[in-house]
Amino acid sequence: MKLVFASNNANKIKEIQQLVPATIQIVSLQDIGCTEDIPETADTIEGNAILKANYITQKYGLDCFADDTGLEVDALSGAPGVHSARYAGEPKNDSNNINKLIAALENESNKKANFKTVICLNCKGKQILFTGIINGKIIEEKIGENGFGYDPVFVADGMSKTFAELSMAEKSKISHRGIAVKQLIDYLNNTI
Predict the structure, then answer these.
(1) What's the pTM?
(2) Residue 14 Cα distances to 20, 81, 140, 168, 169, angstroms
(3) Is 63 a catalytic residue?
(4) What domains can you pick out in the chain, each with its CATH number?
């Protein structure tokens, strides 16, 4: 089975390809000749995943899935949330985003946060959403070289290392994206 993953994020594509069984071939936006930026104008993580999946289905007529992910910090009323990738403004920059987050939490005692991924699958005329959430906390300094985004400052509950200290395989087993992708794969394996 061939499915378009509505993303040009090489890190996400690599992460998902590791999780998907060999019976499912993941095709990137580049593979289908989609070079435009798909608008992410919704005010929720779910809304952006749906926008991206619908864009590919409507424009290219292909079965696909799209995801959106955000970091939700309790002390910041859920921010940066849907704006996680561009929290510090344009152009998006992981280091600037992390620095802004650490500064915003400087005088906060509550460092609880969660990563949330929503995957929207458009397949055979149906639309299904899968959600993965991992709870944890934000630490005050960047640790680790792996991963991307806020990984160097996020420690999942029950862990002693940041996501950036874990290998991709270790992170995928417990991550928000890993949880959502497992739901997606279970669905595909049971219905296709």
Answers:
(1) 0.89
(2) 10, 23, 28, 9, 11
(3) no
(4) 2-191 (3.90.950.10)
First-last CA distance in the chain: 9
Looking from the CA of 146 toward its CB, the CA atoms found within 13 Å total 13
Instruction: At 10, list the tokens.
Output: 């090489």
Chain centroid, CA 3 distance in Å: 18
Query: 37, 68, 74, 94: which one is catalytic?
Result: 68
Tens digits of residue pLDDT in 75-93: 999 999 999 999 999 888 9
Q: Check if the beta carbon of residue 33 is closer than 8 Å to that of residue 54.
A: no
Cis? peptide before 91, omega within 30° of 0: yes
Closest CA to 65 of 5, 20, 8, 23: 5
